[in-house]
């Protein structure tokens, strides 16, 4: 997906939408200065638990920072656990267990210096997320769908031209 997005220009708009599992995974020891709990927040990709790697938050930050150099209008919509925002405890949660094994720094996407100071670039995006980094995302038990995606769908059907501020003010 990111290879395709690299073709975006300054007048384009990028929407990165992920609805799936988010989890926690052991961070490279070099990230201890920015990760006190030794875990990264991750997106669980279709092959990440079958020999691949989950997409770690630091990698997303690097990818978004690279994209923003050519296209400054980026929105990231993350409907998954550990993504950063609101949690509603009355709803069902399906979560994956964290992977406690630290991931070697050399396997992360980006230009990371082993043994050097670690600095994670800010991800210059408008982020719409399902919950805070330490929380799990909820599902609507009647629709068996992620709550934030369902809520967004309902808001867009009600008012297709809604802007971000109006969306944020929705109940």
Largest sheet: spatial strand order: 1-5-6
Overall strand count? 8
Q: How many strands, which pairing sense, and closed or not: the largest β-sheet? A: 3 strands, parallel
Distance between the termini: 32 Å
Residues in helix, %: 10-25%
Pick out the low-confidence regions: 85-93
Radius of gyration: 17 Å
The percent range for strand residues is: 15-25%
Shape: globular
Integer average pLDDT: 78
Our count of helices gives 4
- String of helices and strands: HEEEEHEEEEHH
Structural class assignment: alpha/beta
3D structure, described in words:
Helices cover 19% and strands 19% of the residues. The strands form three sheets. A three-stranded parallel β-sheet has the order 1-5-6, with helices on both faces. A three-stranded antiparallel β-sheet has the order 2-3-4. Residues 85-93 have low confidence and may be disordered. It has helices spanning 2-5, 57-68, 147-158, 164-168; strands at residues 14-19, 22-26, 39-43, 55-56, 74-79, 126-129, 139-140, 145-146. The protein has four helices and eight strands. It is of the alpha/beta class and 171 residues long. The protein starts with a helix and ends with a helix.
Question: Topology, please?
Answer:
Blueprint: H1 2-5, E1 14-19, E2 22-26, E3 39-43, E4 55-56, H2 57-68, E5 74-79, E6 126-129, E7 139-140, E8 145-146, H3 147-158, H4 164-168
Parallel strand pairs: 1-5, 5-6
Antiparallel strand pairs: 2-3, 3-4, 7-8
